[in-house]
Each structure stands twice: as structure tokens, then as C-alpha cells.
Amino acid sequence: MPSMAQGEPRSSVQNSKPNFSMRQKITEHRKSLPIASVEKRLIEEVRKNDILIIVGETGSGKTTQLPQFLYNAGFCREGKMIGITQPRRIAAVTVAKRVAEECEVQLGQKVGYSIRFDDTTSNVTRLKYMTDGLLLREALLDPHLSRYSVIIVDEAHDRSVHTDVLLALLKKIQRARLKPIGEKTEIGHMALEMQTKTRDENGPQQNGVLRGCQGRKLSPLKLIIMSASLDARVFSEYYGGAKAVHVQGRQFPVDILYTVHPESDYIDAALVTIFQIHMEEKPGDILVFLTGQDEIESVERLVQERLQHLPEEKRKLLPIPIFSALPSEQQMKAFAAAPPGFRKVILATNIAETSITIPGIRYVIDPGFVKARTYDPRKGMESLDVVPASKAQTLQRSGRAGREVPGKCFRLYPEREFEKLEDSTKPEIKRCNLSNIILQLKALGIEDIIGFDFIDKPSSGAIVKALAELHSLGALTDDGKLEDPAGYQMSRLPLEPIYSKALILANQFNCLEEMLITVAVLTVESIFYDPREKREEARTARNHFASVEGDHLTYLSVYRESDEFLEKKNVAGSGNNIDKIMKKWCKENFVNSRSLKHARDIYRQIREHVVQMGFNVSSCGSDMLEFRRCLAASFFLKAAQRQLDGTYRALESGEIVHIHPTSVLFRAKPECVIFDELMQTSKKYIKNVTRIDPLWLAELAPHHYKTE
Ligand code: ADP
Ligand code: MG
């Protein structure tokens, strides 16, 4: 039987008494969390151990409470910060907001978050929630992470590629901070020299060493690794037998129900289950695990539609989507209590497994799938597949139902299928393209990538492939050093190396404005809105923007038309007003308004980056030839040629591929194209495709396409 905490369960939402003030409610809630009773002990352990591993059930209060405990215990003296890393942006944002609320401060004061393209911290921020990838970037500017007294690597069980690299890097940084300044450290000379370069204007450095600081030590760095899974051994062994403590969770029994037969359509099965629960079960919110934004948005619509067929008094069901790409004001809706009498049905991706805890959940619906990205370095191909979730994930999912009261979990597959699931998910570092991470390691002064102390080593094939790719893109010299300036510039831009390369080249081709827009759009999830039920209508709407040259130019015209539309409307006034008008325009044109808004944001930020790098943002106007030539020069590693049978051959890997049906070139089938993504779903598809002249490849990437 799962362990139970003593006393009545309390939920800040469901059991709140109306006469409680917000303040009292939060204090009560904090006191009721399992972690509250071990505050003193945890602080002692942190004082005693430089590396501490904390394992605890999801919802026990690790992420929101521990940083506050450390703050109160004085770990932020002398302006030092506590950094908490998350593999997922959404967790960094929602948790920081929650903690700011608990501390009764404005976000960005004592508590803030920082994620790519969105930084809310200020110089008074002491508890800084951020993505693991962002902390890696910070290490480029401050190789000793000297502003931090404690770094908490949260959700370590997730084993995201950035977390894995951080685990290794923090080990080195911790050792380096114990050495007197001026002595050579493992994180290397290189890093310190780079620091000198970027801080030249502030002056007080010499050969990478703070002048007058020789012999002095930096303050030590405490390292805390937090994980939800029970297997702390792997982390403890990695850190030479580091101490691990377990925080008891609070878990009520969860009834697990399976289907009798396999379900052929899990979306439909999920819908049926939602309504069954709604009509027959006791009050309590529902959490449904879906695989992505498309699925979530379509279930949201289907729930709304089916509600219309119910009698008025039964319509009190409120579908609420939550996924990473959702704007954060909308993400917060998942945490708010439903209006009286209503039942929330939260439609979530696997982010709701461990990284965020939504109060009030009593029923979990688990179709048993997850979207997994894998990368085959030999073929240079990514696949994004909907695959069965692992046992560990499935157990986490059902656990979400028993946080506050005994719950139920509906698994939409027969029991015998459960036994067939993998125990846990493979670490991301073993199944992703490593070029970005290797570029960053190089920029940190780590030369020997194969010998680097990874917790799980990626295959040497994957490393070699990534090094070769970086060399082709001009980021690395022949002997594997960072190329000056392109390699440095590429490591500084918060983008995939190939996009950074495209921006650097666009600066030379005088089409930087166009490339900034294109890269921004390629960075967000699909700019078009393509609902299952309205495929034809959506296609017609897309045709309006279609360029015969391809998708990149089509995206440009979506972005520009939306700009022109806004200008024409001459919308002055509040952001809200603009949002409303834009939403309407998006809806009519089958453009995804969330994605477009996000793309605008990203555009602004990378524009700032390149301006800081000294680039002049010029436009090629209507000369789309130059723009396409620039695409060819940048994406030459991703070129494909049409074959006699109408399929395409990817020139780099030799794979036989097809243009994706969503591409504007799906039917036109030009002779030669560049693409953005090579993906295996039901077939091997290339996505985001633009026509080029095959002769350009030899002309613009002669080092790669030698003419015989
Ligand atoms: P852990 O990290 O151990 O999984 P958290 O610290 O994230 O736990 O959450 C502890 C509790 O705080 C949750 O059970 C939930 O009730 C509450 N909580 C967390 N985030 C929010 C939020 N954004 N809004 C309301 N309650 C929240
Ligand atoms: Mg947590």
C-alpha cells in the first residue's frame, strides 16, 4: 500500500474556506506539503554536503519550497542567487509565478524566471527558475557561474540532453570554484579567455584572470540534484557516492482500470471516457494525457461540440489545454479553480507527468502514448513518432490522480499491454542531434568531446557526425577548434547552428530581414492552423499565401501580410486590442495565432542579438532570388533532388524521401529543393521545402559539393 501522510489532505483550491485570506490560504497550503516537515533536516544536509540528491514524489513541494527554505536559511547572502533548472520552459514559468505569489512579490523581483526568448529576472532576483539550456548558455558568459551559491538541477530523472551536460559541467565548475583564482582549472583557460573578451570594456582582467584576485578563492557552489523517480543510485554513483535523501510523498490509493480490448482510436476512446466520468463519477477534475498540441486542440474542440448535445445542466465541463507552446497566461488557467459546479478537464502533454502539479485532479485518462523525437545520425534524420509511454511514465501519470483524495486512472489499453512497456525512457542525449550541444561545449573550452565525462555517453558515431556537421557549417576549423568569428557568433546565438549560419550568411546576402522572419517562424510550432475536421478549408486558406517557390517564402508572406493588416487597421491602443484583431485575422486565414505571436516575439529578440553582433538588418525587397540563394548556401546539408519516379533523394544521406503533404510544393515537385526537417512518420518526409537551382549547391557550398 502506498504510504500516506497523516491528517486530512488539504488542497488550496478545493478545501479553501471563503473567510480565509489569500495569505492565510497560501501559508496553510505550504505547511501542509510533505516537504514542510523536513525543512530543518534538508537545510542541515545541504550545509553538510556539497552535492545532495533529493528524491521525492511529485507534488511533495520540492520545486516550489526548497528554494524558499534555502533563501530563509541565508544562502542568498551577499547578493548570491539560487538557480533552479527545469528541462521544460513551462515548468520554469509556472513554478516561478507560483513562488512569487507565495513570497508575495512581483515576478522579476526576488523571484523570477528566465527561458529562451523570455527573461523576467532583474538584479534583485535571488530565486531564479530557468531552463537547463539557459543555464548552459549563462556558463558561456560566466564560466564559474559565480553569481550562484546553489544550483538545483530539478527533474533530473527526465534526462534531457541539457540536464545531462549540466550534470557534467557543474561537477567541473564546483571543483574549479574550490581552486584559488589564477590556477588552471578543468573548465579551462579557453572559457576564462572568452570571459575576458566579452568583458573587455569593464577592464579588470588579465589573461583570463581577475587582476588582483590571484590566490583568492571563489565561494563554493552547492549542488542539489532533484528527481521524482525512485532510482537515485545513478546520480549518486555519478557524483562519487553523493548523499541521497528521500522526501516522503503523500499518495492516496488509485484504482487502475484497463479496457477489455485494444482501442483503435485513442482520441475517441479518451472522449468517451471523459464524458463517462463527467456523467457518472463524483466531483473532481480530470487530467488527460495526449501527445501534442494538435491532439489537444482537437480534443478541446470535440469536447466543446459534444457538450452542445447535452442538457443544459450537464454542460458544466471545462476543457483546459496545457502544453509548452501555450502562452503563459493561458497555461496559468490550468491552476485556477473551476467555477462553482464545474468540472475541469485538463488536456495535457507529458509535462503534467512530473514537471507541473495541477491541484484538484481526481481522475486520470492515459491512452498510453507519448510523442518521442529520435535522431539517426547516420541518416541525418529525425523521427517524431507517437510511441507507447514507458512504465515509469505510466506510473507517474496514474499517481497524479491520488494526490489529494483516492482517485481513478483509466488506461485506454488492456492490462496485458502494460507488461510489454519499456521500463524507462532512453536519455535524450542518446537520441538527439548533438551539433548544438557540442558547439556549446567547444565554446566553453571543452576540447575533448569523446572523453567528456557524460553520465551516459552518446555514441561516438553521433559525436563524429555532429563535429563533421559543425565543420561543414564553418563553425569549427579543420582541427576542431572554434572558427573565428563564425564559430563564436554561432555559439552565442540561441538557435540551432544551421539557423545561426543562415543569419550570418543572410547578412552577406543582404536579406537578413527576410531570414530573421523565416528563422523565427521555423522556430515555432506550425504557423498554420490545420484542424482535422476542416482540412480542405484550411488548404484553400493556405493557398492564398502560397509561393510557387516554396514554404519559406510562403511563411514570409504570412508574416508580412499580418504586418500589413495591422498597419492598415492602424491599431493604436492596448495590446489586448491588437491581440483581438490579430486573432480574428488568424482565424479567417487558418493561421495559428499562438504560433504567429510567438514568432513575432522571437523575431524581435534574435533581431536584437544580431544587431548587438554588429549586423545591419537589411532587406532584399522583392528580390527573392537572392533570398533563395541564401537559403541554398545555408541549408546545403539539407538538399534533395527529384528522382525519375517522382520521389526525392536527400543528397547528404542518400535517403529516399517525399515532400510532406502540408508543403506548398507537394504537387509541384521541383527538380531540386532545400528543406528544414527530415522526418520519419508514416513515410520519410521532408518538411518546409523551397525550390533551388541545383547548380547553386556547387557554387555556394563548393567545400561540400565538389564539381567533378
Ligand atoms: P514537486 O516539485 O515536489 O513535484 P511542487 O513544489 O511543484 O512539487 O508543488 C507542490 C504543490 O504546490 C503542488 O502539489 C500544488 O498543489 C502546488 N502548486 C504548485 N504549482 C502551483 C501553481 N502554479 N498554482 C497553484 N498551486 C501550485
Ligand atoms: Mg517539481
What features would you describe in this structure?
There is one protein chain. This protein is α/β, with parallel strands linked by helices and about 700 residues long. It has four domains: about 210 residues, P-loop containing nucleotide triphosphate hydrolases (Rossmann fold, 3-Layer(aba) Sandwich), CATH 3.40.50.300; about 170 residues, P-loop containing nucleotide triphosphate hydrolases (Rossmann fold); about 180 residues, Four Helix Bundle (Hemerythrin (Met), subunit A); about 70 residues, no CATH class. Helices cover about 40% and strands about 15% of the residues. The protein is globular. Bound molecules: adenosine-5'-diphosphate and magnesium ion (MG). Adenosine-5'-diphosphate binds next to helix 3 and helix 4.
Sketch the major β-sheet.
8 strands, mixed
Query: What's the count of strands?
Result: 23
CATH homologous superfamily title of the largest domain: P-loop containing nucleotide triphosphate hydrolases
Shape: globular
SS summary, helix count? 24
Strand order of the largest sheet: 4-3-5-2-6-9-1-10
List the ions, cofactors and other small molecules found in this model: adenosine-5'-diphosphate, magnesium ion
The average pLDDT value, as a whole number, equals 89
What is the CA-CA span between the terminal residues?
Answer: 72 Å
The share of residues in extended strands comes to 15-25%
Rg, Cα atoms, Å: 26 Å
Structural class: alpha/beta
Number of folding domains? 4
CATH topology of the largest domain, which one?
Answer: Rossmann fold
Share of helical residues: 25-40%
Unreliable spans are 1-19, 189-212
CATH architecture of the largest domain: 3-Layer(aba) Sandwich
In CATH's first tier, which class of the largest domain applies? Answer: Alpha Beta
